[in-house]
Amino acid sequence: MLGGKTEKHVLQASTSGTSQSNKHANCVTNERTHKKIHQDSINFCYTENKNGNCMEEGGTLMIRTILIVDDQPEIVELLSLYLEKENYRILEAFDGREALQIIQTENIDLMLVDLMMPYINGYQLIKKVRQDLHIPIIIISAKNDDNDKILGLGLGADDFIPKPFNPLEVIARVQAQLRRSYSYKQEAAPTSESLQLKVGDIILDESSFSAIKGDTTITLTKIEYRILELLMSSPGRVYTKQQIFERAWDDYYLGGEEDNTINVHISKLREKLEENPKQPNYIKTIRGLGYKFDNPK
Asked: How large is the average pLDDT for residues 233-240?
C-alpha cells in the first residue's frame, strides 16, 4: 500500500510485481510534455482490449491518454510507472491550474485527481472539468472521510480511492472506468431513430442522453442517465440498491461505499427533477428496499 511520502526503496520494491503480460511495447508513449498529438475519437473502435484501449480495423492500437494531477511528484511518478507499463499515454500536472492548461490542448480519456493541491484544489478542478467534459474522473486522496467522498462524487467524480493505495487496484479501477466510458459512447452514437422513454411529464431522450421536463432540457451524467433509465423502464417497481448499482456502474455490488455513492447520485437526480427534492414526487425511497419512479397524478 502506497501513498503520502514514498521513499525511493519503497518505489523500487513496489514495482517488482507489476504485470508484464501486455506485450505491445511498441505502442507505449512515454511523453512527459504537453505536445499535442492526433488522437481519433474512440466512438468507432471495432474492438477493445482489457485496458480500455481499443483496436481499429486492421489491428492499429489506439492508446488512451490519462492525466495524473497530484502535487506530490513521487506519487505522480509511481502512478505513471505502473500505467505506462499497461500501454497508457500519461500526462502529468502538479496542481489544478496546470491541469486545466493541459486539458485545453489535449484529448484526455481519464483523470486521476488529488484533492489537496495549490492554486486550484481537486474539488474546484472537478467542478470546472465537468462543465465541458464527461470523461471518467477518479479521485485519489488522503482526505477519505465520508463527507469528502460524498462531496467529490457529488461534484462529478466517478470513483474514489483513498491513500495509501495499491497501484494494482488503481490500474484495475482505471481499466473498469475506461471500459464503461467506451460502452457509454457506443450507446450514445447517433442512430437513425431517436428513442424516448416517457413517464408522466418526464421524457428520457436516448439520442441526447438527457431528460426533458416541460420546456426544460436537463443534462445528465452517464451514471444519472443509467439510473433514471432503469427506474423509468418500470414505473412503480422497486429496485434494490444492488440492482441499481450493477446496472448503472456495471460492477459488483458490495454495499457500504456503494450505498453512499448511490445515495449521492439519487440526491443529484432529485435536485434536477423535483420541485422540492426533500419531498420527491418522482424518485421515491422505499425504506429498507430501494427506490422506485412514480408517475404523479
From this structure: 92
CA dihedral 102, 107, 112, 118 (to 10 degrees): 10
Helices and strands per DSSP (H, E), number in the chain: 9, 15
The Cα–Cα gap between 241 and 154 comes to 18
- Which residue carries 512515454 as its cell? 30
Given a contact cutoff of 8 angstroms between Cβ atoms, the answer to whether 230 and 238 are in contact is no
- Condensed to tens digits (0 to 9), the pLDDT of residues 32-76 reads 333 333 333 333 343 445 555 554 444 445 689 999 999 999 999
Residues 6+ apart with CB under 8 A from 28: 84, 85, 87
Contact at 8 Å (CB) between 34 and 106?
yes
Cell of 194: 431517436
Residue from 122, 124, 4, 109 nearest 48 by CA: 109
Please say whether the beta carbons of 25 and 148 come within 8 A.
no
Rg (alpha carbons) of the chain, rounded to whole number: 20
Residue where the block lists cell 450507446:
187
**Is the distance from CB of 205 to CB of 196 less than 8 angstroms?**
yes
What pLDDT is recorded for position 144?
82
pTM to 2 decimal places: 0.55
Place of cell 428520457: 204
Report the alpha-carbon distance of residue 126 to residue 138 in Å, rounded.
10
